[in-house]
Amino acid sequence: MAVISAEMAVIVGPAFAAGLMIAVTHAPLGIVVLRRGIIFIDLAIAQIAGLGAVAAGLFWGEPPWWVVQGTALSCAVIAALFFHLVERFSPDRQEAIIGCSFVVAASLAILLLTGQPHGDEAMEQLLSGQLLFVTWPQIALHAPVYLVILALWFLRPQNRQGVWFYLLFSAAITSSVQLTGVFVVFASLIAPALGATRFAGTRRELATAYGIALIALLSGFSVAIQSDLPLGPVLVCSFMLSALLIGAWPSMRASRLE
Amino acid sequence: MHRMLPALFFLGLMTAVPLSAQAKLNLFACEPEWAALARELGGDDVEIFTATTPRQDPHHVRAKPSLIAAMRRADLVICTGASLEVGWLPILLQKAGNANTQPGGAGLLLAAELVPLLEKPVRLDRAEGDIHPEGNPHVHLNPHNIALIAQALTDRLKTVDAANANAYQARFDVFSQKWCDATQRWEQEAAGLKGAAIVVHHKAFSYLLAWLGIQEAGVLEPKPGIPPSASHLEALLQKLTLSPARLIVRTPYDPADASQWLSQKTGAPAIVLPFTVGGDAAGGDLFALFERSIALLKGDGRD
Predict the structure, then answer these.
(1) If exposure means fewest CB atoms within 10 Å of the residue's CB, which of A56, A214, A244, B243 is most exposed?
(2) CA nearest to A229 within chain B
(3) How far apart are CA A104 and CA B138, in angstroms?
(4) For B137-192, how does the pLDDT look when each residue is reduced to its tens digit (9 = 90+)?
(5) Is A212 exposed, middle or buried (CB count within 10 Å of its CB: 0-12, 13-18, 19+)?
(6) Domains contained in chain A, number
(7) How many domains does chain B have?
(8) What ipTM is given for this predicted complex?
């Protein structure tokens, strides 16, 4: 890895902390999402939380942060509970309904932002985020959320299913989408879990997912710094590449041995 | 002699060190027009970083590592102000945490605070579009504003980098004389444009039009920052059939579709004005920006 100057370390420090916090929380959530085959739930909930934040901004003008946060979280929780009901009563249609919710939420955001000055930019920000602009106070604000989620997740395994899963999931996504945007949220959930599928059900699954996330973060940050690129889109690519390499490498080796 | 070379080399290094240690003044310009002005006044004494490109809407930037690094290094920041950069400058200043450039200090110069602003809104409401409470922020297209801002920038350069104060003053004296002459020349050249009616895409040219006495026959955006809608364009077309416009102008970053549609319907040519330094292929400096804009408005050098 390239050497990073002390100045760059200061600049990207908060963004890297946010990335780590998100990756650590998302990897175990992503594994469950992948196992259940509800891949698009994160896109849908991220988009719905984002829609809530956008709507709060429109109706309150310049709302205090807790109004934005509260609206986004309420929207995400309502959506999550709705998906939970769908899972119980109509499981075979769940993925289709989740997909539909995503496009409807995305379109509603576009409709809300039509006629808004610089609506396109707000839309882009919702999708690809401005992770580099994250500051330490913001990290301090969101860190407790992730800590509580991780504690509930690992200390009480029953929380990994049923309504608890949906609640923890929507709380995590609501924080993450505001720090990094929808695309990085999706990549950090799905890519590590996807790269670790051959260890599905074993203890190595989570360890592999964490490995993939760490490599993705380190390589993504170095590329963004070296080539001076926006961090969000670079991270999406580095997550996918890292998952591809780690996920496909042993099978390539195995096929050569045969 | 050859033996002496390493010694000479080291001697060179020793003398070079104090030079490079006395580094250039780092200037952060939000927009290309202020970078161009800083180049005129700062010459070799300043190192300039420009946050936005000429073909980019300065209302919005994408956060790149270099952007934050440049703001951290900056000794002096010059931006437009009047809420033009409200979406990114406050958070960038905060994120960079540079004590030199905090609001209210000598290290942050906002051009719009130095000149009389046009189009100050009577009513402040987001429903009126992206209006800036201070007034229209696109102040640089009036050369008289540039003259005022050049004076203020020179004062700030002298404050922040007192060691080179004489050099800044000397450059300002040369520049302001040249600028004053050029302004008079432009006013003569553009005399024929007085009273002409022109449609603009965004209210980006208000200061240029006001300076040259050109009438704004219409705005393609129904409200500032809001993309043209079908009904608004239809109404504008009606108005223009009664009193035709001579030109439809837009900046390099405005989308072309609305002005081309209106151009086809009315026969008035739709053109792109450079808007800022480097906004068209010709490039150049602040002088070239005004020369080119006036030539395009007069219809010279246009196909």
Answers:
(1) B243
(2) B64
(3) 37
(4) 999 999 999 999 999 999 999 999 999 999 999 999 999 999 999 999 999 999 99
(5) buried
(6) 1
(7) 2
(8) 0.76
Residues near B265 by beta carbon (within 8 Å), at least 6 away in sequence: B237
Helices (H), chain B: 4-21, 32-42, 65-73, 89-96, 143-160, 165-189, 206-212, 230-242, 257-266, 286-298
Cβ atoms of A165 and A33 closer than 8 Å: no
Written as six digits, the tokens of B30 are: 């939000």
Instruction: Give residues with Cβ within 8 angstroms of A234, minimum separation 6.
Output: A220, A223, A224
In angstroms and rounded to an integer, the radius of gyration of the C-alpha atoms of chain B is 22
| CA distance linking residue B64 with residue B85, whole number of Å | 16
Domain of B93, in residue numbers: 23-185
Cα nearest neighbour of B93 on chain A: A133
CB < 8 Å to B95, chain A: 132-133, 135
DSSP B24: P
Residue ending a domain, choose from B185, B207, B230: B185
Chain A hits for B223, Cβ within 8 Å:
117
A38 Cβ under 8 Å from any chain B Cβ: no
3-state secondary structure of B269: coil
Q: Count the alpha carbons within 13 Å of B270 in the hemisphere toward its beta carbon.
A: 19
Strand-pair partners of B28:
B49, B77
Domain span including residue A44: 6-249
In a domain, B115, yes or no: yes
How many angstroms separate the CA atoms of B170 and B186, rounded?
A: 24
